[in-house]
Automatic annotation (TrEMBL):
The keyword Hydrolase applies. Pfam families: CN_hydrolase. Gene3D superfamilies: Carbon-nitrogen hydrolase. This is N-carbamoyl-D-amino-acid hydrolase. Keywords: Hydrolase. InterPro entries: Aliph_Amidase/BUP (IPR050345), C-N_Hydrolase (IPR003010), C-N_Hydrolase_sf (IPR036526). It comes from Cupriavidus basilensis. The keyword Hydrolase applies. Residues 5-277 form the CN hydrolase domain.
Length: 314
């Protein structure tokens, strides 16, 4: 029996700091309704989709910072998303800042959840690769304080859902080949990934002109090398003065982009994704059991022993 998922990659334009949760949830609901009207079963929202990308600020007031986190999911303002999902039969992936109480201690994560067509949470993922820095760096045009505001999650899982095997990742994870491979080894057929990427990279401004190229390069390579669909969804446009790249797209296991947003605002890119397309890649070129050589990779598990170029050696 063919296994198709009609997926909507639900790009968001900028979310300003003054926008309330209610304003943002209204925009997410509009996406859910439009996706339903277009025959979709799954809607993928960006990373930190309920607020502006707050790690761009060094915030000293704990109450001000805590206001960006969700203490429960669903909560009072987000419950309507789950109810609408159940009513329409359209599930979703949602990125948000999570404040969890674990053994009485507050823990903060950059989190995504996968919600089924019945409105119930299927799985939760906590971002593994946290980019940026932990201390205030005033020389930057804007901060990237994910290492201050979040702690890393434990790893990558996949879930049996939507008739296939679904994985989740968040933003900077997409630049690391291990992200896709760890899920590829678990049989992932579709990886959902929300992101917030500024055009300007303060530590390496020479990369700025390549930001969209790198965005697509890593996701297309990850899809092809693991025979999986990748749905990459951006927050785009000028958010609090910071230009975000956009570039939302749906990538087939061939590595080809099959649907893409053409603006930097609220927009859906839709594709009818055949999960069985993965099979041809997973059983030939990327048949892991036949062709991978873990015995040859085993020694290289860390950078210890890496050889520095001579001119950098002390
Ligand atoms: N939110 C992110 O993880 N952003 C990172 C960069 C720009 C620091 C990214 O890899 O896109």
């Amino acid at each position: 029996m063919p296994r198709f998922i009609n997926v909507a990659a639900a790009q968001l334009g900028p979310i300003q700091r003054a926008d309330s949760r209610r304003d943002v949830v209204e925009r997410l609901l509009a996406h859910l309704h439009q996706a339903h009207a277009m025959g979709c079963q799954l809607v993928v929202f960006p990373e930190l989709a309920l607020t502006t990308f707050f790690p761009r600020w060094y915030l000293e007031d704990p109450a001000e910072l805590d206001a960006f986190y969700e203490r429960e999911m669903p909560g009072a303002e987000t419950r309507v998303l789950f109810e609408t999902a159940a009513r329409l039969g359209v599930g979703f992936y949602l990125g948000y800042a999570e404040l969890a109480l674990e053994q009485g201690a507050a823990r903060r994560y950059n989190t995504s959840i996968l919600v089924g067509q019945d409105g119930a949470i299927i799985g939760k993922y906590r971002k593994v690769h946290l980019p940026g820095h932990a201390e205030h760096e005033p020389w930057r045009d804007f901060q990237h304080l994910e290492k201050r505001y979040f702690e890393p999650g434990p790893g990558f899982d996949v879930w049996r859902a939507y008739g296939g095997v679904i994985g989740m990742a968040l933003c900077n994870d997409r630049r690391w080949s291990e992200t896709y491979r760890v899920m590829g080894l678990q049989g992932a057929e579709m990886i959902l990934l929300g992101y917030n990427t500024p055009v300007h990279n303060p530590p390496a401004p020479e990369h700025d002109d390549l930001s969209m190229f790198h965005n697509h390069l890593v996701m297309q390579a990850g899809a092809y090398q693991n025979g999986t669909w990748v749905v990459g969804v951006a927050k785009g446009g000028k958010e609090e003065g910071c230009e975000m790249i956009g570039g939302t797209c749906i990538i087939a296991p061939s590595g080809e982009i099959v649907a893409a947003c053409s603006t930097k605002g609220d927009e859906l890119a839709i594709a009818r994704c055949d999960l069985d397309l993965c099979h041809s890649y997973k059983t030939t070129t990327f048949n892991f059991d036949r062709h991978r050589r873990p015995d040859a990779y085993g020694l290289i598990t860390s950078r210890r022993g890496a050889i520095e170029p001579e001119h950098l050696a002390a």
